[in-house]
Amino acid sequence: METTALLVCVQVPEILSIIYIRMPTMQQDTLRHFLLEAVSLLALYHPGAVIDSLLQKQLPMDRYVHCPGPTDGQEPPPAPWRPGERLALPRASQVPEPGGSRGNFCSLAVTLRSCGGSWGGKFFVDHFLRVLMEKLKNLGSDQPRTSSAKPEADEEEAALEPLKMTRAISVVVSALRSPEAVQHLLPELLPVLLKQISATVGKEMPSSPLSTRGKLFLKGHASDDNPCRLSLETLEAVLRTCLDGKWLWLLRKQGAWAALEDPRAHHDGVCLLTGVLLRAGTISLPLVLVLTRWLDAPSANLRVTAAAFFAELMKEPALQEWRCLQPIARALLEKLRDSSSTVRQMAARGLGNLVSGAPEKLRKHKGAVLEALRRGLEDVAAAEVVAESLLALAKVVTELKGKAVGSTFRDIARATKGFFDAEQASLRSAAFTLYGVLAASATRRWRSFFTEELGSTWASLVLHLRDPDPGASMACQGALRLCAPFLGLRRVRQGLAVNTRLSAAELLGDVCSQLVRSCAPGRDGAAGPSPAPGEGGSG
Is the pTM for the entire model greater than 0.85? Predict the structure, then answer.
């Protein structure tokens, strides 16, 4: 095999079949080692053919090879392998008695670790992972079907193929001692695995009994019945190889893995993952360019993943450094009209995050951003889009101040008050937050208008001090504190500032008491809560 491995491409399946048959009959460890070495040699020269064969069945050779975890083994690596040199066999200590297996690629991975040095190991893993990634790309869920008349069993078998590729990547990466072989492939691995996660979120494992051959490869794994979890565990294995442990700890602490697996929170999980990867310095321009194309993908899941990724990325100046900010911002403006409400929500979040990542660009294109987010308030069929637009507008108006907001100030204020009594607590909280920002940002031009608006909204603000949702109640307190100067209610403003530890009921009682005192003739304060210029009135 050492002299002819390069010439036997056509015979690879036959050779592996012979090894498959003979391995259980081998009684001597030495002979098994020779067979494993033969498989390793074939894989070095014909990785595609070997991978195809390995994915077909649960290889008995896995029973005879121990696949250590990422931290197992303290021995120094062997001398580098180079083409033409004899491959060193695994030590006997690495081959325990027949026992459990961690997957079809375990034997191959351990053989590589034993016989592959710095050059051979990198060459092998690079080639091996590239073949797996290419196969996974070609099996993408958004690829058109070649035939609509496939038997159900064939369709379910085809659905298992990406999962087997994903599992293979996990096993190979987990068996490596050095991260170098994976680190330089990370910009290519990340989009492949993110795409697989997006394709499997909310899905179940194919259940056809005729698909058992493919399921053998996944059998015994913790995520047997959850294809998305399998993809997430593979991504975690890759990141564990490349990143410092503190970043993996942070992902777990923030609940990123659980969110990524949940169809209702997948977008938030992508934001958490992107934020950690940014801080770890693993977001690169090639990854950004790949995900840019996903924004217009036929798959809604891919568009959600891409929109959430860029919503978080908008917080950082990296897009400006790569000269990608303008096309991405333009794409997010367009995505506010996407058919997916989650995509629209993430687009609004991304535009709001321009405040942190590119405030000068926000000021330059403030008209388009304000108008787009104002239109988002009209998306009443999707409460999450409206809430995100309200919060984004709060950030944008705070940055621009009232003068730069222009005539849109009036439209935003009128639209915002319509959500004070919304059924969803997230809408009420976001509306109170934005209303307080509008009060703080109102310039002389808009003070008279805003005072008139408060004539119809102050009662609602007071009542929602006792909002059943704690977040909405706190946001209402902040808004009322900022609106109090427009009403001439100095005592109310002072009471809100001083009594910060009162319960909602106690605070409401205190504010009502202050209102009664303010309305009493001859007392400090106006005769009513709506002292617009040139107007009187009572509360």
Answer: no
End-to-end CA distance of the chain: 95
Using only C-alpha atoms, the chain has a radius of gyration, in whole angstroms, of 31
Amino acid residing at 472:
A
Long-range contacts of 139-148, Cβ-Cβ distance < 8 Å, separation of 24 or more: 139/165, 140/195, 140/199, 141/199, 141/299, 142/199, 142/297, 142/298, 142/299, 142/302
Phi and psi angles of residue 83, each rounded to the nearest 5 degrees, phi first: -55, 135
The reported pLDDT for the residue numbered 97 is: 32
CA–CA dist 173, 261 (Å, integer): 22
Rounded Cα distance, 41 and 446, in Å:
77
Report the interhelical angle of 490-498 vs 470-487 (nearest 10°). 150
CA atoms of 419 and 425, how far apart (whole Å): 10
Angle at CA of residue 353, ends 352 and 355, nearest 5°? 85
Neighbours of 15 (CB within 10 A): 19
Find, among 494, 532, 530, 531, the residue nearest to 513 by Cα: 494
Return contacts of 399-403, CB within 8 angstroms, 24+ apart: 399/355, 399/359, 399/362, 399/363, 400/362, 400/363, 400/366, 400/370, 400/441, 401/441, 401/443, 402/438, 402/441, 402/442, 402/443, 402/445, 402/446, 403/443, 403/445
- Helix or strand (DSSP H, E) at 101: none
Distance CA 514, CA 417 (A): 24
- Between CA 437 and CA 442 the distance in angstroms is 9
Q: Are 503 and 468 in contact (CB under 8 A)?
A: no
User: Hey, is 123 helix, strand or coil?
Assistant: helix
Residue 369 in this model has a pLDDT that exceeds 80: yes
Judged against a pLDDT cut of 70, whether residue 151 lies above it is answered with: no
328-368 pLDDT, tens per residue? 999 999 999 999 999 999 999 999 999 999 999 999 999 99
